[in-house]
Specification:
Layout lengths: L2 E9 L15 E3 L2 H5 L4 E8 L6 H14 L6 E4 L5 E4 L5 E8 L31 E8 L4 E8 L5 H15 L9 E2 L22 E2 L22 E8 L1 H12 L8 H17 L6 E9 L10 E2 L3 E4 L2 E3 H6 L2 H14 L2 H11 L3 H5 L2 E2 L11 E5 L17 E4 L7 E6 L7 E8 L3 H8 L4
Parallel strand pairs: 6-7, 9-13, 12-17, 17-19
Antiparallel strand pairs: 1-6, 2-5, 3-8, 3-18, 4-5, 7-8, 10-16, 11-20, 12-14, 12-15, 19-20
Helix pairs in contact: 2-3, 4-5, 4-7, 5-7, 5-10
């Protein structure tokens, strides 16, 4: 796929008449949750069938949305006192226009390949200056691909999906909905006296080894490991999911959720495909949203996520029924409640992490084996991005080549089925596919 870049510009916020922009010295201080999240670009891809919306309308809507969501038009920097912050300087979002002399049907429904990265601006740049960069790629058939990328430090998936829906509404000339609510000094204030009731030193933080480069862990066996990783898209039909849930929930008063069931199934499938030793331990890293747990509104814009860490041995996962894996996941997520979030705030505000040389455990790795991580987008309204010509024909994460890093998204079919994007080693792929659709 040859992508021809036509233009690149900064789209700045467009304020309503009579509402001048605020002073460029404004800032949003990073919260304790922003400081422990991944320092990475969150990249997603939309595809819109013809007739695709015009670029001028999309750009105008983007400028209007950025006036409401100023963090996405700012830059990561420092507050006047030197603490990390999002600086609201209205630099703008980077918008790249591109074209492809081919039909989109050649890549959709997309099989995840490195070619998807061409639908984004260069994400390998050492330091992207903008919080948001996006690329509008038009195909010969009239279809449009939107490659959207945002800095995870500025916003989590929940917040980003709110922005995307508002962008679509602004493009259609509709009210954007409730405005974003931002972090402010004192919002996450430690209790007095603090009550640290959980082991955050080994969950949200870890002690780096001497000389370790912080922010990125390799986790592999040397050069060439990434080249042996492929991303498999598994499609689970609504009927298959219903069968899995019935099997996992048999004899249980309240059935396991769709998410708990699918994740339990994938955890067991990955364990079997990897050929782990029976006594080897596997842990899932699983995002848990803290908004309702801390009584904050859904419009909170930033990061408000911690993680659950379900853990089991390979023997337990494979010798015991699906219900066991689902219960382990359910119980561990239930532990990460409001009290857990408040305990984390107390620990993060105590200064212990800085004194002890701890670093955030949310680091990028090439290989997670024997562990797995999951990003679930099943409840986010990503498919509600509508620029005036209807919902996208499909939506997916971009090419993210980390072995064991799974993404769950609603299928573009729209019938309740789910697509799982699962990076595996090439030599484990056939084994994964063989047991992926088995209920045994």
């Amino acid at each position: 796929m040859e992508v021809k870049v036509l233009s690149s510009k900064l789209v700045k916020p467009a304020y309503n008449a009579g509402a001048p922009p605020a002073a460029a010295t404004e800032y949003i201080p990073l919260s304790v949750f922003d400081k422990v999240t991944y320092r990475m670009q969150m990249a997603i891809i939309y595809a819109f069938p013809p007739p695709a919306p015009p670029t001028a309308a999309i750009e105008k809507g983007l400028a209007a949305a950025l006036a409401e969501y100023r963090a996405f038009a700012g830059q990561l920097g420092e507050a006047p006192d030197g603490t990390p912050a999002v600086v609201l300087n209205d630099r703008g979002a980077r918008l790249v226009e591109a074209s492809v002399d081919a039909d989109l049907v050649g890549m959709a429904p997309a099989k995840p390949t490195p070619e998807l990265l061409r639908l984004h601006p260069d994400l390998e740049a050492e330091e992207l200056e903008e919080v948001v960069v996006l690329q509008l790629t038009r195909f010969r058939c009239g279809s449009l691909a939107v490659g959207f990328t945002s800095n995870h430090v500025a916003a989590d998936g929940h917040a980003t999906s709110n922005f995307l829906v508002a962008w679509g509404r602004a493009t259609r000339g509709l009210p954007m909905g409730p405005p974003p609510v931002h972090h402010r000094e004192g919002l996450f204030r430690p209790r007095s006296p603090p009550r640290v009731e959980h082991d955050h030193r080994r969950r949200e933080y870890y002690l780096p080894s001497p000389g370790e480069k912080l922010g990125h862990g390799h986790g592999g066996d040397g050069d060439g490991v990434v080249e042996n990783i492929v991303i498999h898209k598994a499609h689970f039909t609504k009927d298959f999911i219903a069968g899995l849930r019935a099997k996992a929930s048999e004899g249980r008063g309240r059935p396991f959720s769709r998410f708990e069931t699918i994740l339990a199934h994938l955890w067991r499938t990955m364990t079997r495909a990897r050929g782990l030793n029976p006594d080897e331990t596997s842990t899932i890293r699983l995002s848990v949203d803290g908004r309702h747990r801390l009584g904050l509104p859904a419009e909170y814009f930033g990061n408000l996520v911690l993680w659950a860490f379900p853990t089991a041995t390979a023997s337990d996962l494979l010798s015991r029924p699906l219900r066991h894996a689902a219960q382990v996941i359910h119980d561990e997520v239930a532990r990460v409640d409001g009290d857990y979030f408040r305990s984390f705030v107390d620990f993060a505000g105590s200064g212990a992490a800085e004194r002890e040389g701890l670093a955030p455990s949310a680091v990028l790795k090439d290989v997670l084996c024997p562990d797995v991580e999951v990003d679930s987008w099943l409840t986010f309204p990503f498919y509600e991005l509508d620029f005036g010509t209807g919902s996208p024909s499909y939506f997916m994460p971009s090419y993210f080549q980390t072995e064991g890093m799974m993404f769950l998204v609603p299928s573009y079919i729209g019938d309740g089925s789910v697509d799982a994007f699962v990076p595996v080693f090439q030599h484990n792929l056939e084994a994964f596919k063989e047991c992926c659709y088995s209920m045994e």
